[in-house]
Model the fold of this input.
Amino acid sequence: MAKPIDILTIMVNTRKNLSAYAGTPPSDDQADRRIPDGPLYTREEVLAILATGEAAINLWTQKCMRDVQKYDMEPADVVDLVKIALNGGKFKGSQWCTNKPGGAWAACDSYQLFFRQWIETASKHMGVEYYVKFAIGRSGNMMLIISCHPPEER
Done:
């Protein structure tokens, strides 16, 4: 009687890492996308990129683009939110994110921030909460904005 042949399956992760972080993106079947020991990007390097202006940001996911439009934000507002996050926000963690199923990966830092904003419908300044998630692009001169939204959008 013939012996069964052992089959070796090799899984290769061919999805690209578009972020400046040098780690290896998770495989498609890996549920845990957290990256320990963050933040991955220093305050100084992120602020240096943002100082170059709005052209340095790229709304990287469709959801981020929709949220920026939904909340009537301009690119300058997104830049300001990231600055607020770095200057006084709460670091929430780092994780691998993708821009679409089967798409490229970026290693991201996520922050929760609070600030006062004029709310037209209330005719007064009120405290607001936002979450932002971003990565520095591989070239080192572009910010990939993964998400930018109030808490109800979590």
User: Anything to note?
Assistant: Residues 34-153 form one domain. The radius of gyration is 19 Å. The beta strands are 34-35, 57-59, 90-98, 105-119, 124-136, 143-149.
